[in-house]
Amino acid sequence: MTNSSQVDLILKQALLEDIGTGDVTTCAVIPENHRSKAVLIAGEIFLLAGVPFAERIFQLVHHVRKGVISHVVKFIASKKDGDVVKKGTIIARISGNTRELLMGERTALNFLQRLSGIATLTHKFVECVDGLPVKIVDTRKTTPGLRIFEKYAVRVGGGSNHRFGLFDGVLIKDNHINVAGGIEKAVRIARENTQHMLKVEVEVKNIKEVKSALSAGAEIIMLDNMSLKDIKKSVEIIREQNPQVIIEASGNIRMENVRAVAETGVDLISVGALTHSAAAVDISMDILT
Question: Are residues 169 and 36 part of one domain?
């Protein structure tokens, strides 16, 4: 799924951010050894994502408080990531120390609500292009510190991940091009200074730049904020000159126009909104005893 040590580090930091030196309300009201059962309940229909992280958060609360991880907390999921849940659906049943259930509640819900929102929005975009040979991909427009979780949620929603960060893919953008002195120079310099296994992607804004990227030998060409007409023309030019080039469309992609963009024949459609504009879904935790 994701690197477990990195996940634990982020989840513990999230818990510490909320608990700090202690939950003054819970510790004042609830006895130390009190135990309870609780349920996580969906408040609307959505595509679920983040269940393993919610479970881990409740296990880590004891570590944040006492310095050791607790396996006493029972977390029984009745739904799994990728399931569509309806309003009123019980997502999981939890039992354990009442103080720790309450201390983990908000952090667990924050992750579940956020990731489920991303997965749900991604799924809607994927449904819009159903039947077409195109992938919906994310961007680096993620919440700082939460990228591994948000990109995971995109995959749960049926989307694909673009490069994870600046370190795992060459993407020459307008500022690189301006500083290098043109697309051809930027591509040449990139090839001279990166290992041969990395594909070189170039962002272009018009037909002239498409031709320059092709001449330079770019292996992926991103059509950024281009009109539908120019996207179609660019695809024709690229397919005619080099069918092996991967074509990506990006910029101003909405559910209203994503299928039309997909029908131009591009291979990838990157959508920043998947992670920067997804609304959190409605999930609550109710203590039963």
Answer: no
Q: List the catalytic residue out of 65, 79, 93, 106.
A: 106
Told to judge if 173 belongs to the known catalytic residues of this protein, a careful annotator would answer yes
Calculate ∠ Cα 6-278-258, nearest 5°: 115
Of 79, 140, 173, 185, which is the active-site residue?
173
Residue 233 designated active-site: no
224 counts as catalytic: yes
Q: List all residues 6 or more positions away from 155 whose beta carbon is below 8 Å from its beta carbon.
A: 161
Q: Which neighbouring-strand residues pair with 82? A: none
Note if 232 is an active site residue: no
On whether both 33 and 18 belong to a single domain, the answer is yes
pLDDT digits (tens, 9 = 90+) for 166-195: 999 999 999 999 999 999 999 999 999 998
**What are the distances in angstroms from CA 65 to CA 62, 130, 262?**
5, 47, 50
pLDDT digit string (tens) for 44-69? Answer: 999 999 999 999 999 999 878 766 56
Beta strands in the chain (DSSP E): 35-42, 46-47, 74-77, 84-85, 90-97, 135-137, 170-172, 200-204, 220-224, 246-250, 268-270, 283-287
Q: What CATH number is attached to the domain comprising 28?
A: 3.90.1170.20
Q: Which of 93, 141, 188, 233 is catalytic?
A: 141
Looking at 106-110, 196-200, 201-205, 237-241, which range is the least confident one? Answer: 196-200
